[in-house]
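User: I'm writing a short report section on ligand binding and want a predicted complex to refer to. Could you take this sequence and FQP and write out the structure as tokens? A short remark afterwards would be nice.
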Amino acid sequence: MNKAELQDRMKVYFIMGSTNCSADAEEVLEKALIGGATIFQFREKGEGCLEGNDRIELAMALQQICGRFNVPFIINDDIHLMKKLNADGLHVGQEDGDLKEIRNAVPGKLLGVSVHNLNEAWLALEIGADYLGVGPVYPTGTKTDTRPVMGYSVIRELRDNGIDAPIVGIGGINKDNASGVVQAGADGVAVITAISNHLKPAEAAGELLKAVENAKQNN
Ligand SMILES: Nc1nc(C(F)(F)F)ncc1COP(=O)(O)OP(=O)(O)O
Ligand SMILES: [Mg+2]
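Assistant: Sure. The structure tokens for the complex follow:
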């Protein structure tokens, strides 16, 4: 996938695990993809998350749904699970291991890295990250161990310093505040709750896509 295609895939980056939705995870994902989510990350993490075979089986079921929609299926943190499922890519943060080693361990796969400042961004791109997750842009209840809320400042700073890699903003984003993230320079928005906890996940995904595409047109 070339950079332009990947930037396009960043528009509505849905992230979910079984603990993020009250409804059936497979149904929620199917509806999110019907509604227009452009890429999916399996993030089975935190209190009460699935483990062992249950976790693998859910990952496989969600991977199969992504396959039907031809949407990239990304695994969060777990390089072994990514390899086991031959997923499309892996997303890691600053504390998930040595980035260069991880890059070398997943040749030809999409590698996303969470970054929180310009230095982390340069280092991630230097080792070969394909896209950057920047945040938390707004306060979020989903991830308890986040770095300080940063608003648009770091996204803006990366673009002002000539970083033109695919960037997705993350953290507390919804249809009402998504446009500001794109206007600050992100190629799209990553969300969990705004879709996973919505009564109509397809509608939620569609509204986010519309907000992102409108903001891109006005950029
Ligand atoms: N999971 C993520 N996905 C993205 C993406 F770019 F894909 F939107 N950006 C940032 C994160 C956060 O990644 P990390 O800092 O390792 O925390 P956790 O493993 O708890 O998610
Ligand atoms: Mg992580």
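A remark for your report: Residues 76-77, 92-93, 96 surround magnesium ion (ligand 2) (CB under 6 Å). The mean pLDDT is 97.
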